[in-house]
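Why do we bother with holo predictions? Because pocket geometry can differ from the apo form. Keep that in mind while you read this record for 2-phosphoglycolic acid.
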Amino acid sequence: MRQRLVAGNWKMFGNCAQNQLLLEGVAARASAIGRVSCAVCVPFPYLHQARSVLANSDVGWGAQNVHQWPEGAFTGEVSVPMLVDFGCRYVIVGHSERRTLFHEDNQLVAAKASAVLEHQMTPIVCVGESLEEREGGVTEQVVSRQLEAVIGKIGVDGLSRSVVAYEPVWAIGTGKTAAPEQAQAVHAYLRGQVAEHDDNVAQGLTMLYGGSVKAANAAALFGMEDIDGGLIGGASLNLDEFVAICKAAAG
Ligand code: PGA
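The structure, written out:
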């Protein structure tokens, strides 16, 4: 059976006081769920806080981005070894907000995934099409190109140590969730693409759906055959919502 995962993506939200309540709540309530791994990807300044609160819980923590090089004169950037220093297990790479707002292309995303794997952390590799691309009928080409660039860099072996998140851009933060069947169709397509490289890796690959997942729609999405959990933005900032989504993934 594939590992199921629910990861919160806090984006650029939070402060010490609010985070403390949220982290303590997640540690107390999400730890006991079982059958699903739970994690939170917090802004860099709060990694220390996440580690302090979550260290003795079953909840993992991680970052939302990283630089692809281990060190150097890159003012304002954060390296993979720094994330290791803070006990991170996961790093989101290629989120659509990074791709569009910060101009990250497929090659850069692949380089970041590779750097994360070199340090034994798990990249959560995001792929997804824009509304224009979906309406233009090129969803499969877009997500396939995004994933193939990463496989080209890290190989199918690297992919077996990664998590893939399908996040249609038009569903992120918009309240418009993909219908479970729509999401499932893309997940099945991507798993098929991986199977062309290696069927075992394809069958074992944890694939998350992201984009306006809430407690109210999580069970229907996670009930689909190829959806193994979620990458949760807005709803991960609400303790009750996030815990309910984690429970939905546990089935
Ligand atoms: P959302 O964000 O759940 O707020 O739509 C998901 C994401 O961007 O990872």
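The pocket of 2-phosphoglycolic acid is lined by residues 9, 167, 172-173, 210-213, 231-235 (CB under 6 Å).
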